[in-house]
């Protein structure tokens, strides 16, 4: 079941633990040739997002989140560095939820920019956004404060101290013309790929992904010196 009420891949009557186990297997089972896309997972650098499709109560979301975190730890050795649970992308009042895992990538360039976790932790006043729960907070609340917590707190303190220091320039230089050339080539490839993307999205979704990407790419191209349109 998707956010546009697309049909699911199967129907089953399962208790929550069995349902979560099946969903996590579809994300993390390396032997599944159709879905094994996440092959390299740093067990201590994963962000967990649990999205309410609109009709799940706060009480139920709490139970779902607890079950997902517990199974990630027990079955896969994954302890999310952040847990984000809430109602973000809905299907009106759809009775369901989704589980997403983000393998954290360091976005900083020699300290010149915040990393991905710091960006997620940044203050936000967006309506409906749920602040990420830190690993130490979650595990302390769950009564698992002993294992590795002291080391994690020391690392967090060191990271906070480093962040508080003056940011030094990286010295990184780039040629704007090269950037423009690469971006333009990429956008033209996106436009050219529209028929294939539309065909795939028609099979698994509502068929609007290709045209949306094409319009966005065309709009970006038209904001530069030349305007490219492929029909």
UniProtKB/TrEMBL annotation:
Task: Report the superkingdom from the record.
Answer: Eukaryota
Listed under GO biological process in this entry are: glycerol catabolic process
Q: Which UniProt keywords apply?
A: ATP-binding, Kinase, Nucleotide-binding, Transferase
Q: Name one GO molecular function term.
A: ATP binding
Q: Which organism is it from?
A: Beauveria bassiana D1-5
Where do the DhaK domain residues begin and end? Answer: 1-129
What do the Gene Ontology cellular component annotations say? cytosol
Q: Which family does it belong to?
A: Belongs to the dihydroxyacetone kinase (DAK) family.
- Name of the molecule in the record: Dihydroxyacetone kinase 1
Where does this protein have coiled-coil stretches?
none
> SUPFAM superfamilies annotated for this entry?
DAK1/DegV-like, DhaL-like
């Amino acid at each position: 079941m998707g956010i546009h009420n697309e049909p699911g891949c199967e129907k089953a009557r399962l208790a929550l633990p069995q349902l979560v186990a099946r969903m996590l297997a579809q994300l993390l089972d390396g032997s599944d040739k159709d879905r094994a896309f996440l092959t390299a997972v740093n067990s201590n650098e994963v962000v967990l997002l649990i999205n309410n499709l609109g009709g799940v109560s706060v009480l139920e979301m709490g139970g779902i989140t607890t079950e997902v975190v517990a199974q990630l730890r027990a079955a896969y050795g994954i302890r999310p560095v952040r847990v984000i649970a809430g109602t973000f992308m809905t299907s009106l009042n759809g009775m369901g939820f989704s589980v997403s895992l983000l393998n954290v990538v360091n976005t900083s360039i020699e300290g010149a920019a915040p990393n991905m976790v710091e960006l997620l932790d940044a203050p936000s006043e967006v309506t409906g956004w749920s602040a990420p729960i830190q690993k130490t907070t979650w595990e302390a609340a769950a009564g698992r404060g002993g294992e590795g917590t002291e080391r994690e707190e020391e690392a967090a303190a060191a990271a906070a101290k480093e962040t508080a220091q003056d940011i030094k320039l990286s010295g990184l230089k780039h040629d704007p013309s090269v950037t423009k050339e690469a971006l333009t080539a990429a956008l033209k490839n996106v436009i050219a790929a529209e028929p294939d993307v539309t065909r795939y999205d028609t099979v698994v979704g509502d068929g609007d992904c290709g045209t949306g990407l094409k319009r966005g790419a065309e709009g970006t191209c038209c904001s530069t010196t030349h305007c490219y349109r492929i029909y």
